[in-house]
Design a protein that fits this description.
Radius of gyration: 14 Å
Distance between the termini: 36 Å
Oligomer: single chain
Number of strands: 8
Order of helices and strands: EEEEHEEEE
Helix content: 10-25%
């Protein structure tokens, strides 16, 4: 199975203009993903260098926290960079007055249910500390 990352925003910007080798925004979202749980009308599937969303920084429980890459848990620099690109884009949208949320979950044909909702204050989380938490619904804020 793979991670899937779906994002919604109030922004009408075409996020696909930010597509590159590490991050890819696609307005076509597979039917079985929980888009109805997203809060905003403009929705995007966010893929990574692997096509699915697996090549972003992820952490799975039971304990979750933001933090920089650690020597004891090697991460690919390209994955770190792509995750930073994601959070920088989210931060830029919020600074423009837009709202953004996303869901990080395992892809399956069954209904995906995030186990927790999490407000992420990007004023308190540095770009290099951000990572996704499996089966979480993120609501991004500043301040």
């Amino acid at each position: 199975m793979c991670y899937v990352l779906i994002l919604s925003t109030t922004s009408t910007d075409d996020l696909s203009r930010f597509n590159n080798d590490g991050i890819h925004f696609d307005g076509k979202i597979p039917d079985h993903l929980p888009v109805g749980q997203l809060r905003y009308s403009n929705r995007w599937y966010v893929g990574s260098r692997s096509g699915c969303s697996c090549s972003f920084r992820h952490l799975y429980g039971p304990e979750f926290g933001f933090g920089i890459s650690e020597d004891w848990y090697p991460e690919e620099q390209s994955d770190i960079d792509a995750t930073i690109e994601f959070v920088q884009l989210v931060r830029a949208l919020i600074l423009k007055g837009e709202h953004v949320d996303c869901i990080d979950a395992w892809d399956s044909q069954e209904a995906l249910e995030p186990v927790a909702s999490l407000a992420v204050n990007l004023s308190k989380v540095r770009d290099d500390e951000f990572r996704f938490f499996e089966n979480h619904h993120f609501d991004f804020v500043l301040g």
